[in-house]
Design brief:
The protein is α/β, with parallel strands linked by helices. The protein has a single domain, classed as Class I glutamine amidotransferase (GATase) domain (Rossmann fold). Helices cover 28% and strands 22% of the residues. The chain has a 9-stranded mixed sheet. Strands 2-3 form a two-stranded antiparallel sheet. The chain has a two-stranded antiparallel sheet with strand order 7-10. The longest helix has 24 residues. The radius of gyration is 18 Å and the shape is globular. It starts with 12 loop residues before the first strand and ends with a helix. The relative contact order is 0.16. It binds the ligand N[C@@H](CCC(=O)NCCCC(=O)O)C(=O)O. Ligand LF53FM6H binds next to loops. Pathway: Amine and polyamine degradation; putrescine degradation; 4-aminobutanoate from putrescine: step 4/4. GO terms for molecular function: gamma-glutamyl-gamma-aminobutyrate hydrolase activity. InterPro entries: Class_I_gatase-like, Peptidase_C26, PuuD-like.
């Protein structure tokens, strides 16, 4: 029988789900560095990278290790951005317009983990692809190519721009006056960066709109049960988060939510 391993960390721990990236013929599990930085220093938590669990070319399924018992020991979970797209069959569309950009293993990790985190009350923050996953996990649909729709402004970055140019503020968002983001910012408009080709088409169950772009596209969402921290943003708050009030406040608010869970867990086990 497998024994339950309990680790007592001195600080809150946030699990970050990995992408699976192919280098040559081999798969590597990884997370963009700027996300790890913002979780560690912006949310003040130990970042732990969670490998994708579904079986693959060189991997027997890891679900026996990364199960509900494991995830319940985390203080928070973070779903970072990625150039890959959620496979559309997860939201009821069989034909993919971007078949070259999928990451089946990440889908197979993120989507069940989002549902588990919400069910178990584990604080959750999701960025860009992560926000799209949050919507899909809750039964929502995505536009596969926003740029095929005339009603939307250009939400993609200029691929020829420098990194600073690509992550520079690109358009305004209007924050819902009674939402989590407006509350932590103390204002209802903000300028955000924009580096995505997909976007929310229909909203998932149990979610509410936190922010919209000038073209009406949903730019941020949250759980409509205020008892737990569940937030997803389409932009990239992790980019130079210290220099932007909404970004730094968002990571601090996530940090406060996970710290609260950390303290409650420690009190229970005393
Ligand atoms: N592929 C999706 C999601 C976009 C996204 O998450 N981009 C991240 C880019 C790299 C990074 O900064 O981590 C879409 O195009 O909508």
């Amino acid at each position: 029988m497998r024994r339950k391993v309990k680790v007592n960390f001195k600080k809150p721990v946030i699990g970050i789900v990995c992408d699976v990236i192919k280098y040559g013929l081999n798969g590597f599990h990884g997370v963009g560095e700027k996300y790890i930085n913002a979780i560690a220093h912006g949310a003040n938590a130990i970042p732990i990278l969670i490998p994708a669990q579904p079986e693959a070319q060189d991997l027997e399924s890891l679900s026996v290790f990364f199960d509900a018992d494991f995830f319940e020991q985390l203080d928070g979970v973070f779903f970072p951005g990625s150039p890959s797209n959620v496979e559309p069959h997860h939201y009821g569309t069989e034909t993919s317009k971007t078949p070259e950009s999928h990451d089946k293993q990440r889908d197979g990790s993120s989507l069940p983990l989002i549902k588990l985190a919400i069910e178990k009350g584990i604080p959750l923050l999701a960025v860009c692809r992560g926000m799209q996953e949050l919507n899909v996990a809750m039964g929502g649909e995505l536009h596969q190519c926003l740029f095929h729709h005339e009603e939307f402004i250009e939400h993609r970055e200029n691929k020829n721009g420098t990194r600073d140019e690509q992550y520079a503020p690109a358009h305004d968002v209007t924050l819902s006056p009674d939402g989590v983001l407006a509350n932590i910012l103390g204002a209802t408009t903000h300028k955000v960066n924009s580096l995505h080709g997909q976007g929310i088409k229909t909203l998932g169950n149990g979610l509410k709109v936190e922010a919209t772009a000038p073209d009406g596209l949903v730019e941020a969402i949250s759980g409509n049960d205020n008892s737990n921290f569940v937030v997803g943003v389409q932009w990239h708050p992790e980019w130079q988060y210290q220099q932007d009030k909404l970004s730094s406040s968002l990571f601090s608010a996530f940090g406060e939510a996970i710290n609260q869970r950390f303290k409650e867990k420690n009190n229970k086990s005393m």
